[in-house]
Amino acid sequence: MLINRRTFLVATGVLTLAPEVSVAQLKDTYYEVLLRHTRWAETQYDATAGRYRRTDFGFAVVLGNAVLLTRGTYDAALAGVEKDVLEAHTLATIKHFAASNVLAGGAEWGKTLFWDTTFQSYFVLAARLLWPGLDAATRANVEAIARGQADYTTSLGTANDPRSGSWTPNGLTGGHRGDTKLEEMGVYAQALAPGLAWHGDGPGWREAFGRWSRNEAGLPAADLANPSTVDGVAISANTATNLHDTFIVENHGSFGPHYQEELWRTSGRNAVHFLLAGRPLPEVLTRQPNGELLWRTILATMSDAGEPLMPMVNDREHLYGRDVIPLAFRSTVLRDPMAARAEAALASRLLAYQAHPPVHRLAKFSGEAKYEPEARAELAISYLLHELRPPAEPVSEQDFFTRAAITIDHGADPGLLTHQSAAAWAGTVTKPGFTKLAWQPSHDDWLFKISGATPMLLPPTPVTGRDTTAYRKVRDGFDATASLLRFADGFAGTATLPTGTIVCALPLPGRVDVHNLAIAGMPGLSGSRTYTGSAGRVTVKAREGFRVDELTFPATTARHVRMTGITPHPTYGYSLFDFETGTRPAVTTASSSDPGYEPGRATDGDPATRWAVARAERGRADSWIAVDLGAATTVSRVRLRWETAAAVAYRVETSADGAAWTTVAEYPRPDLSTPGWLDVDGRAGFVARSAEPITVRGDTITVPAGLVEGYVRADLRKIAAEPAPDCPSGVLASTADGFLSLFNLTGADVTGTVRLRGTRLYRGTQVTTRDGTEYALTLPAATARVEAPWFTARGIPPGITAVVHDARSLTFRGGPAAFVLTHRDGHSLPVVLGRGERTVTFPLATPFPVNDLALGRVTFPDSVLPPGMSDPAAAVDGSQRTAWTPGRDGRMVVDLGAVHAIADVSLKWTHGRPPPHTVTYSLDGRTYGPAASARYVAVSTQWKPGYASLQSVVVTPSA
């Protein structure tokens, strides 16, 4: 088999990277992954009971088994079990659990919406695949499950399931702050799908299925007037508020794209039932209200592995097996070429991922095996979707990230300012508990650790003030973000540039943790990382298994030895299997411990027992564990074997009396300390504008306080040799990649001069000097901004004043002088300046920034358009070649993103007769009328065929 040979080559090192899987190979890849995963699945088989286990719904492995038994070419050597044995195990399990389901008269499982119905969906599907091999009683039980669940779910109306405890969709109101109800509404819908698909319409089934499915993504206020219908029901009938108005989903108090994917994860589970049963798909599965705006936010956080990044979730990153199905659904059912590219990228990693310990598992990095049956089932469904519907043709990876490029400020409440560029992803995260500047150069989510509470660059403390700007190419001429964050004890600034470069102004040293694993076939994960700086080069090998620290120090006499923490594991604090000094201690004590993890368990000689800090103390930095050796002893080494909760930093102390302590060793010791710049494994690098060094300690990089720039790939030595801008007190500035990033790290407005090298000219006023310019700065308190290098003046003498008005024109004075002026787009003009003033204009250039509040903004309707209407986004895309066709009496709404004072709204129509129309305004997206200030602008028409289309909506703010 070709795939087996490829896997062999990767495993033996002949092939260092797994080759990309094509769309044509997806089914074969999924089949092989299922075969290999069967070795894990068989660990769920209870030979005594004669069936797979009930624990954590282990019996859901039957769906993957059913696909292997009824499709493809079964390979017993890969699966680790003969086909007839697997079939016997599977059929016996289906027979047992069909009879033991509550809906079939049993008492073991089922009916409960959370989470039995998810596994019922898998179970019913497995049974249908193996239908010819089931006895009549089992078939009747399976039918009773599908019908009974649909009846039960329908009977609840919009009420909670009394069997499900506190789980609730919150009726049809939903929710978006802290705990989206998208997932919960999806569960109600998927509880109905098997009944509808296999048994047709029962009383109220279809209505209930449509109601929950339509409301999953929620309905923004501005879309309430959308006259579109889905399955014959008006979108305006939807009531759920499951997402923020920036189309971001929060769950468990954080932003997690994994939960945004639930819309298509649920849809994939549901669609496969209808497709396999030969029934038409309900329209709500192919026309999902506002689903495309939700998908836009997924693309805005997508990695090169086809998996969205998780900057605020601890245990959902790298759940490869569970992230396939949303992509497979979008690729096959929605025919989305972007999803097809992401799916192919993820599939290309699956076999390499699966071969990494613990071998065969598909959701291994969550730390919980309970997700394995579900991952297996969803991979099986993905296989079936590709069998039943041809996938879209994927775009190229380069085209993918070019199309996905966008900046989004999701707002202070979600706490995420994101920038997806062609070269990198970056996000300034200000959600309580997750503060960081997350950065993924080349979209590589196996380079830097960014998930959950893992700190990165910014102080991981609460943000008390947030000033942010998201620059958009259509409006500003370039994509970038800038933020100035206020903390209780200072300020920090961030900027992200269109080149993928980041800039941060740090009040304290910043930390970056590096993934360092050996996963054959995964780019970059070769088992070591190499760091290069001006002080030399060091290679840090990956640690296999739990970390063991061997610390030696000059021999000292002491009775007491202790480990005192400096920086705990960001999630779990401190936990040790072994604390050895060479002498068995008489007593072991600690600052705290969890029940069952007392301090003595780290010194009892049993490698399986351990000490752990109390759960409530996990965030405490200075937790400690100490040994009393019983008498004064010579000590020169300490060996610490850590659990996952390994200290990031700690010190070893000794004492004669247990009261006065002396530090004898510290961890980590720098592997490399280098001034100026650091290259990280040839994949990214940092330049620090500081006299303090950048240090590498194991898999942690520490950058100094002050201005730090991060580059995807660049000549770091050359960049570091360039002097930093000279700024007024309290201001830091960077000219990384030619852009001028400015940060006012004070609580007062600052005016003054920024001295720059070179002859790049930025918006505003600057005077040329012998080696650069003096830029006149006015920067309000606690703000940041980015200016593009619109012009470069070659051969310009000192003493010339240049006032850049916008990206098209600028005025010079102070001549005489002659020089060449080059625009950022490459066009050049010779300039001859006399003693008077001269304004130079590039006529073909756009005068960025464009003073239009509507430009590039979200428009409604979006994902489901009324008949005859084209996408209203064409009226705000800045292009003269596109236009919005309203359709009969069509209406569009522009969301300006915030409330603005409005001076004027100008409409430009294509050639022909403009339709009768009105412009109205709204603060809340619900009530429209005349207004001087608004967030929403609506254009209502009495359009009929033959009228002109709307080329642009321009909203001018009041001065």
Structure description:
This is F5/8 type C domain-containing protein. It comes from Lentzea cavernae. InterPro entries: FA58C, Galactose-bd-like_sf. The longest helix is centred in the N-terminal third of the chain and has 20 residues. The N and C termini lie far apart (69 Å). The N terminus is likely disordered. The strands form eleven sheets. A nine-stranded antiparallel sheet has the order 11-12-13-14-30-27-26-16-17. Strands 18, 19, 20, 21, 22, 23 and 24 form a seven-stranded antiparallel sheet that branches. With 959 residues, the chain is an alpha+beta fold. Helix content is 23%, strand content 29%.
Helix content: 10-25%
Strand content: 25-35%
Please tally the β strands and state the result: 48
Main β sheet profile = 9 strands, antiparallel
- From the spread of the alpha carbons, the general shape counts as globular
Would you identify the regions where 5 or more consecutive residues have pLDDT less than 50? 1-16
Radius of gyration: 31 Å
